[in-house]
Amino acid sequence: MIEKRRTILLIIFDLLTAIIVWTLFYVYRLTYIEQVDITFKEGFFKGIAVVPIFWLFVYTLQGTYHNTLRHYRLKIIKQTLYGTLIGVIIVFFSVLLNDFDHLYLYQQYYKLFFVLLGLHFFITLLPRLILTTIHVKRIHKRKFGFKTILIGGSQKAIDIYNEIQDTQPSSGHDFIGFVNINGKDVNLEKHLPYLGHIEEVEDILEKQQVNEAIIALESSDHERLKGIITRLSGYDIRISLVPDSYDILSGQVQMTSIFGALLLTTETNQMPDWQVSTKRFIDIIASTAAMIVLLPVYIILAISVKASSKGPIFFTQERIGKNKKPFKIIKFRTMVVNAEKDGPKLSSSNDSRITGVGKFLRKTRLDEFPQFWNVLKGDMSLVGPRPERQFYIDKITEHDPQYLFLHKVRPGITSWGQVKFGYAENVEQMVQRMKYDLLYIRNMSLALDLKIMFYTIAIIFKGTGK
Question: Which 3 state secondary structure label does DSSP give 289?
């Protein structure tokens, strides 16, 4: 709720500053460049209506409104500078360049460009810096903090707790308790409430609404760390480790603040904020366009499914999405009604439950087309790991707990695993397919998404899907 209010406030200020900048630039242009009387013509009012919305669009794609509680002043300055430079170039050359009636010297164009750039940068930056400074000061004075749990029970855990607590100003960690690994530790309990054992960590994360977890283990203890990080990875929390000398020398520890203890923050993927925002924008535009353009295809497929066997046209089922949130996935029905009356069962190549039309839909992936609605709602993305039922997630994690990493991103209509492997017929095949999706998450980018979509389109037209 706090982050939502801060984001809304930031958007309001950005809208107001965009209006102020447009007005000041218009007055400057008429007074000092064209040297005519100030009259607010139709073009001015059109700009007031359109230009601020354009700036919000630029900032959104840039990732300015993503994770706003983690903003710091240097990041805000960089974001404002890059966003202003890109936006001013677009506005100047697409709107303003052909709108000057009294300009004869090229120096006047240069002057207008740099005036608009300077006005927009400084006027936009000022309220952003004020908001961020107030927020940072609250963090430093411990009036606001991120709910943090400490995982560990050794002297190392006590040391890192004391180091963070003694740091002035505060680094933003609001410790709510500790989770032990080897059993209850009396020494650490003198400092923090005991929340439970690592085996109960999932319940603790949900009940306590944790924002960050610090694991106080040696980073060389790879197996134990891997197990703990895997269990935490399906939740929307920041995971930090206490680095050793090798981690620092190898450059794995990156500082985002000069305050606070040295911590190694794990990142599931390297996709920058602007690509995350752009990916979501593409999802919305593409899914909306697809549902409109493919309407005739939807109608034909719906009639075919209805004619193939008794039952509904669409099939819905609960799947687990990003941060382990359940949602209802929608597909064209490819099986007979009550196909799982005896319990969950994966399909196979010669599955008698699949209808004649269903086989064609599966080979061409056309059964997935209704999921554009899931994409538009935000449950899914165009590209991402295929979502599974909780029943099979439990089965897969028994074989390989790394599957839980897939819950860090939105599931997709198509995926690298789906392209390379196809539908899985058993849990072992699901584990094999998972490796491709893990590889995708570690290398997420818009370019890789585009490549996967091209492969998927090829499968649709060739009908070679498994």
Answer: helix
4's tokens: 């939502």
Q: Taking 50 as the threshold, does the pLDDT of residue 416 lie above it?
A: yes
Q: Note the helical H segments in 155-309.
A: 155-166, 186-189, 201-208, 222-232, 245-249, 273-293, 295-308
Q: What's the average model confidence in pLDDT over 78-82? A: 94
Angle at 340 between CA 336 and CA 345, to 5 degrees: 115
Q: Say which residues have a Cβ less than 8 Å from residue 64's Cβ, sequence separation at least 6.
A: 10, 14, 79, 83
Q: Which superfamily, per CATH, for 146-265?
A: NAD(P)-binding Rossmann-like Domain (3.40.50.720)
Please, are residues 404 and 205 in contact by the beta-carbon 8 Å criterion?
no
Tokens of 435: 């490796």
CA–CA dist 424, 346 (Å, integer): 8
Residue pair 140/169 in contact (Cβ under 8 Å)? The answer is: yes
Angle at 210 between CA 204 and CA 215, to 5 degrees: 80
CA 87 – CA 163 distance, rounded (Å): 43
- Cα separation values, 191 from 199, 242, 243, Å: 22, 18, 22
What does the alpha-carbon distance between residue 288 and residue 266 come to, in Å, rounded to a whole number? 35
Top pLDDT among 61 and 268 is at 61
CA–CA dist 233, 237 (Å, integer): 8
Q: Residue 57 phi/psi, 5° resolution?
A: -65, -45
CA 246, chain centre distance (Å): 31
Is 160 a residue whose pLDDT tops 90?
A: no
In this structure, what DSSP letter does residue 264 have? E
259 phi-psi bin (left φ>0, alpha ψ -120 to 50, beta other): beta
Q: What is the pLDDT of residues 186-199, one digit of tens each?
A: 577 888 898 988 88
- Taking only the tens place, the pLDDT of each residue in 85-122 is 999 999 888 876 666 555 556 677 788 889 999 999 99
Return the structure tokens found at 280.
Answer: 């979501």
Taking the C-alpha atoms of residue 167 and residue 459, their distance in angstroms, rounded to an integer, is 56
Domain ranges of the chain: 2-140, 146-265, 273-462
- Closest by CA to 448, choosing from 436, 459, 460, is 436
Place of tokens 């050794």: 154
The pLDDT, as a whole number, for residue 60 is 92
E-assigned strands of 57-172? 146-151
Which residue reads 């790394």 in tokens? 402
pLDDT of 248 above 60: no
Question: Average pLDDT in the 72-90 region?
Answer: 93
Q: What is the CA radius of gyration of the chain?
A: 27
Order of strands across the sheet that contains 146-151: 194-197, 173-180, 146-151, 212-215, 238-241, 264-265
Instruction: Give the closest residue to 85 by CA, choosing from 42, 130, 116.
Output: 116
For residue 251, pLDDT beyond 70: no
